[in-house]
Structure formats: C-alpha cells, structure tokens
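User: Can you help me understand a structure? I only have the sequence.
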Amino acid sequence: MNYVIPILAIFITLSFLLKVGFYPRWGTWLTALCCALFVLLIAPWVTEQSKTAIAAFFASREKMLDVSVCITLEAAILITFCFDCFSGMRTRDTAFKRSVTFLLHLYPGLLIGGVLCYILAELLFSFPGIDFNMLSWTVATTTFLLIGVGARLLQILLGDKALRLEILFIVNIFIVVLSIIATGY
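Assistant: Let's start by predicting it. Here is the structure, written out as tokens:
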C-alpha cells in the first residue's frame, strides 16, 4: 500500500499534464496558476493535519473506496475525452453533443488537487524544521513552473495529437487499475 499511493499520484499527475497539454498555451499557464493558488489556499489546512491522521485516512477501507469511486469517475471522464476527440466523423452534430464536447475539453482533471494535498503534506512532514509558510510558497511556485513547463514539454516530446490521446487513454486505464489495487489490499 505504501507504494501504490505514490504511483497512483504519479499517474494522476501524468494524466493531468497530458490533458492540460491540449489547452492553448495561455490556458495551460492559467491552469498552472490555479493549481499554485490552490496549494497556497490548502496550506493552512494541511499544516493542521497529523501524520497519523493521514495514515489513518489511507488505512480506512471505506474512505479508500470513496476515493476509488472519484478516481474511477475522473478516469472515465478523461477516457470519454479521448473517444470524443477520435470521433471527428459525426453524422449529426447536435447542441447536446457540442456542449458535451466543450465540457470535456474544458475539464482538466480535479484529482490533481488531491495529489497536491498529498505532496504538500509529505513535504511538510519531511522537512519539519522549515517554516511552513516558506515551504508552501516554494511548493506553489514549483507547482506553477512544473505544470506549465511539464505540459508543454510533453506536448513537444510526444508531438502528434493522436499519440498524446492514446497515451492519455492508457494512463487512465492504469489509473483505474491502480485505484482498484489501492482499495483491495
């Protein structure tokens, strides 16, 4: 279990970066800014948590089942985004289909918030002598830069939109499998 959660967090982050890579450049940086602000807003709450409370959360089967449902729903949304991008040859284009496509393209993936909480908590417990305010600002700045640069770097390295969609699809399949593993221990 100690290894499944960090691996799941890495896959969720990779999925988020791949999805944000489909935004225009300003949208990627706006999303990165929102994530950095989120880190700053959750920092006071995370500093109040104890290491045993976080360990108890991950040890609770009921809470992990709830988290697994959220993870599976987000993976299903991102898999639907992949299928929607590949279904360019629609016979009838209705207002409902256009609105669903718009929402799928707009949705970046909200589970990155949980990953950012997890990373911030782990860093706060790893560096107990450092000022929490300074550490949260450092994590927020790093989050902003890593999301902006990471999404663009994946976009450049993978290049082709179809390849990025296929990798996003495969990553989300792995996320579903890992969420099942996380609840079944």
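Now, to help you interpret it: The mean pLDDT is 89. Residues 132-158 form the longest helix (27 residues). Let me know which part you'd like to focus on.
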